[in-house]
Amino acid sequence: MKIAVIPGDGIGNEIIVQGKKVLETVAHKYNFDFEYEDVLLGGSALDRKGTPLPKETVEICKSSEAVLLGAVGGPKWDKLPSNLRPEAGLLGIRKALGVFANLRPAILFPELISSSNLKAEVLGGGLNIMIVRELIGGAYFGEKNTIDIKGGQKAWDTISYSSFEIDRIARKSFEIARKRNKRLTLVDKANVLESSKLWRKVVEKIAAEYEDVEVNYMYVDNAAMQLIRDPKQFDVILTENMFGDILSDEASMLTGSLGMLPSASVRGDSFGLYEPVHGSAPDIAGQDKANPIGTIMSVAMMLKYSFNMEIPAENIKDAISKVLKGGYRTLDIAVEGAKTVGTEEMGNLIIKNI
Ligand code: IPM
Ligand code: MG
Q1: Cα(16)–Cα(18) distance, rounded to whole angstroms?
Q2: Segments forming the whole domain that contains residue 176
Q3: 68: buried, middle or exposed (CB in 10 Å: 19+, 13-18, 0-12)?
Q4: Largest Cα–Cα distance in the chain?
Q5: What pLDDT, on the 0 to 100 scale, is given for residue 222?
Q6: pTM of the entire structure?
Q7: Where does substrate bind (predicted)?
Q8: CATH number reported for the structural domain that contains residue 348 in this entry
């Protein structure tokens, strides 16, 4: 089974090492073999190949069973034109691989309740929300431009969705909801946006085929507020690209830290792209400070979604729980009295518990 590995930029390089280590540990324990191929993406690809998305990266990812990605971006490349920025590489690889459904579970480990910014009674002993973010359409991929006009400039981005794009991710979300608490919230801005109206129309139609799933509809501004007010009301949140980008960062803070959140980007077959939700954190890169848990949880998602290996995936999650129970914390989730550890030691502790 071939896995393409993209360390990327910044802390991507450190967390990927830990993710691979965990993968190798479970491979050894459960007796299976992975083959890895490291490829370039983002700023490091630009520096070495002159483009944030080299052709061979796309080819190698396409010929793999799964892709494990760290993070891309950094101040060094911030002033470049959009098509050369590291983010163009990330958006480009997602698009090239056709991974339209980005699953971002916001799970609060009970051990981290005191790291969350919300009061314990609001969190009610834990939290488990699945955000399904559309990943390869909407504003980030729509027609866009900046032009000079009299007295200044004008810029625009367009949000456009076809019913086909909404249909396929809605079905996926209903299937996911079926295996969870059977509740689905479509988050949109249907009181203002045409594209949101189409989302509602398509989702309403599909909902009729999933009568066992309870559906509700919520405007995105309200959803942003409800996530803080009463996050336990949510089970599956389905939403378009930009709203999902924003709400998943918000949801991550409910769980203690952005460093904890994994993601799986899938498309309907067993192929998937797995990456933590956080970015490349250039301010702490190379200092052994980053939290590798988002990446390690992404490895667990890979085992589950691409390789159908639920037991090893659960094994990883249990190992993380045990380490947190033991009081070990990276800086981002540290509270008073915690045993603060670095990136590498956190990885080692998790391995020891597998
Ligand atoms: C994310 C990130 C990316 C996105 C950026 C880096 C392009 O914020 O994965 O959430 O917007 O998708
Ligand atoms: Mg984001």
Answers
A1: 5
A2: 117-254
A3: buried
A4: 67
A5: 98
A6: 0.96
A7: 94, 104, 133, 221
A8: 3.40.718.10
